[in-house]
Amino acid sequence: MYINVIKHAKKWVALSATVALLSVGMLFVKGLNYGIDFTGGNLFQVKFENALPLGEVNGFLDKLSVNIPQLNSTSRKVQISEDNNIIIRTQEMSEEQKNSFLKDLESLGTYKIEKTEKVGASIGQELKSSAVYSLVIGAVLITLYITMRFEFKFAIAAVITLIHDVVIAVGGISMLGYEVNTPFIAAVLTILGYSINDTIVVFDRIRESLKKKSDLTFGELLDKSMNQVMIRSLNTSITTLLAVVAILVFGGDSLRTFIVTLLIGILAGTYSSIFLATPLVYFFEKNRDDKYEPKKEEHHEHHGDAKEKIVV
To answer: What is the DSSP letter of 65?
Structure first.
């Protein structure tokens, strides 16, 4: 199977731009559902003597949310472990609401408080700032690395590709309404590493091809290089996706945001490393097509001269 990516380069880039713009639009329209790590809130970890099903706990909390709005289904997160431990995360409560909630919990059964924590809004804002800084610093370091290893225009193409992957992953989480927490930031950083690795594999093949003499134009050379590593990239992505899907199915709700972010990011990264990064390099270096003179015509001319000499 041979895919002419450069021939339809404008279509691939237009598709990527459309999906990225839709993701940005989703962020503006719906925004992100920030967890208590970013907005501040309370965490309660209690251990009951008897096991309680998740449905019963959520039903009980729904009733309490009439008087304590922070306990409504969109503002809380409940996790239950096998040892009867229940972890409840809510938006920030007052001391009076907190005491009332802990007292009401006795209706579910005898329990022991394992841990209670409060995350202030100022800490949440600090985490947001740190997350943005880490993403920016990561992008700058990647640009420097690719510039040193390849060329600056290759680095710009790679960074645009990374922004594309991250925007689509974040937009997907916004659309799904999943809670954004610190594991989400870890997932985004993981996407950066995975995507750039895939892109560098393609760029490395292009660089090796450029060092060799060829009868191909620059565009044809890019197509050939990309097709040589496509199967490898697809196999790597499929293997990774199988593991991610397995964790998504069996990992539980606590890992859902992290895994879904990875899933969307890996899919976007697999596409972009082939159908976005390579076309961008072509657009940035399109004048190389004029520099590469096909040698086939030269060979034909030489053969023609030789035949004429023989005839003479």
So the answer is: T
